[in-house]
Every structure is written in structure tokens, then in C-alpha cells.
Amino acid sequence: MSGKIKYAFIDRDGTLIEEPADEQIDSLEKFALIAGVIPALLRLQQAGYRLIMVSNQDGLGTDSFPQADFESPQQLLRQILDSQGIHFAAEHFDPHFEHDHAPTRKPGIGMLLDYLRSGDMDFQHSVVIGDRQTDLQLAENLGIRGYLLDAEHDWQSIVDAMLSTPRCGSVERNTSETSIKVEVNLDQMQAPEISTGIGFFDHMLEQLAIHGHFGCRIQARGDLHIDEHHTVEDVALALGQALDQALGDRRGIGRYGFVVPMDEALAQTSVHLAAVDLSGRPWFVLQGALPDTRIGALSTAMVKHFFHSLGQTLRAAIHINVRGDNAHHMVEGMFKSCGRALRPALAQQSGEQQIPSSKGML
CA–CA separation, 253 vs 256, rounded Å? Predict the structure, then answer.
């Protein structure tokens, strides 16, 4: 998700400022902030949202609504927001009337086309917040979530709902060799549902998800009549991409994870260690050699390739140390250890909204 931006497209009248009966805020006497808006906007900023003001202003610039009458309350709004450390990255106002049928008037997306074309919008987490059905329609037209400020939903409840949304990722990867669908949920553990056509590989993926404590569904069809290479590789790439998608900008995560479990059955012969850094910089190191053999339909040579591919799309540094004699136990220890290392790294730290890096990004 590197470079992806969570946008909050926010209406003005009735959402930031109370809307008067004549639906036109053209004097300071009509100016009043909506209750709870300041702390809510601060929470959104802290959570990494980029704030964008988007408003229909019927007849703005005409004799019925001179630009100067609009600017006075708008300037006061800017001053108040600035005094509280709240920054709107852009303001978009459409002056057309409804009967003009202008593509820039909400719920049309004309004012926001540049954001769609930029390629940097995080569609999973970006939102529209407003007080009318046209705002919800705008959200639908943009392909993002919409929240309505009304008698049942105030600013606090909306932001609570936004920030408590489970971190989910969904990826479909279709090539001439494989067809893969992966869904993950980092905040809701459930029994994994895995089907790749490779029984032992399914079991290992289940261990990764269970010990990583994330929900996971994987459906894969591949050219197993040739061998398992493409299926294992593409599942790893899709799983890493789905986890990366669910992490978003990685704000508030533990980032690091490491574990040294002792397998009782191999207590005298094997120690498995895995360390993970969700740094945004992919890397994989394997210390130790796996026997050159097959476990069911899975070649042990593909295990290293799986973790290498997973690290590439998860954008993570993964280090695994393995030794032993039994290939089955060694590989299972690798998947379990990596899952256990991922668990604290993926976890959202209570009350933490900062990106865990001095660079300000991962």
C-alpha cells in the first residue's frame, strides 16, 4: 500500500457548519459549528486521513449569492480549524444549481476526478462524510464508503465506526497458470478456509493464519498437472498482497515480531526461530537447510520460495532459522514460527495511531 492515501471527502453545510433554514451561509451571523466536529476531525487526522472539503454551493458568485458573502464565513471556518491544528488539503465548491445537471455537482464526481486518476487513493479506507443522500450517492459513485450525519449518527459515532472497521484485504490473482482468491481479516480471528489442491500446503497455510491470529480464506486452482511451483508462488504473492492491503499505511501496528518456540517432539534436535519486520522493505533470509525431499505433493524446495514471495508483496523482512532431521516437522515449525512472529507485528497497538518509523512511513 505504499503511497496510498486515505481521503476523507467532507461536506461543509450541515456537516462542518450548521445549515440555516434558507440553506445559505452568507453571513457571520449564520455561522455555527456542528457539535463535536473539532475533536472528530483531529481524530481523523491522527489516524492518517487527508481531509478534503467538498460542497455544493448553489449560485455561488451570482447576485443571489455573491462570492464575498460566501468568503467571510468560510474564512472564519479556516481560522478556527487552523487554530485547532486541523488542515484541509483542498476545498472544492460547485456553484451550479440542481437543474444545471453539471457533472461537477454532487453526487457527480467531476470535482474529484483528479483524485481518482492519481492512482494514490486508498479505496478501501477512503470515505465521504455528509448530511444528505447525495453525499452517500457520491460515495457510491467513487467506489468508497459513505457516512451520513443525521439524528442517529453524530460525529463521534461516525469516527468510532470508521476507526473500528476491521483491517481487511482481498486479492484475486488470475494468470494463464493459476487462479487465486485470498481474503484476510487482521482483526477477526476465524477458522481458516484453505483450498489449494496441495494438502500439506493447505495445512501449512492454516498454521500460518492460526498462529498469526488473522482470518484467512484462500481458494486456488493451478496447473498442478505440471507441478506445484506456480500455485505455491502465486498463493504466496496474493497472500502477501492481501496482508499488505489490510495493513493500509501500517499506522499503529507493532511492526516487529520474533519467536523462538521449542517443538516438544524435536526438543533435542531442532530449534525454530522466525523474526519479522513489517518495514516496507522486502527481504528473506533462511538459515539452515531442508532435506531435499517431498512432503506429500509439496517439494521442500518450494518452502523457501514461498517465504521469499510472501515477503516481496507483504513488503516485509522475514528471517527464519531452522535445523533438524524430520522435514515435516522442520517445515511445520517454519510456518508456525513465522505466524507467531507475525502476530505481534500485525497487531494494532491499543490507542496508538502513529506510524512506527522515524521516517513517518513504512
Answer: 9
Which range marks the domain in which residue 19 is found? 6-163
Our answer to whether residue 325 is catalytic in this structure is no
Is position 325 within any domain? yes
Same structural domain, 263 and 190: yes
CA-nearest of 153, 163, 162 to 34 is: 153
Does some domain include residue 359?
no
Condensed to tens digits (0 to 9), the pLDDT of residues 79-127 reads 999 999 999 999 999 999 999 999 999 999 999 999 999 999 999 889 9
Catalytic residue among 13, 94, 122, 131: 13
Q: Are 73 and 33 in contact (CB under 8 A)?
A: no
Residues 186 and 327 in one domain: yes
> What's this model's pTM, rounded to 2 decimal places?
0.69
Phi, psi for 18 (deg, rounded to 5):
-60, 135
Domain assignment of residue 117, yes or no: yes
Is residue 16 located within the same domain as residue 148?
yes
- Inter-CA distances, 293 with 306, 326, 328, 336, Å: 16, 10, 10, 20
Catalytic residue (one of 11, 26, 94, 263)? 11
**Active site includes 11?**
yes
Cell of 316: 516485509
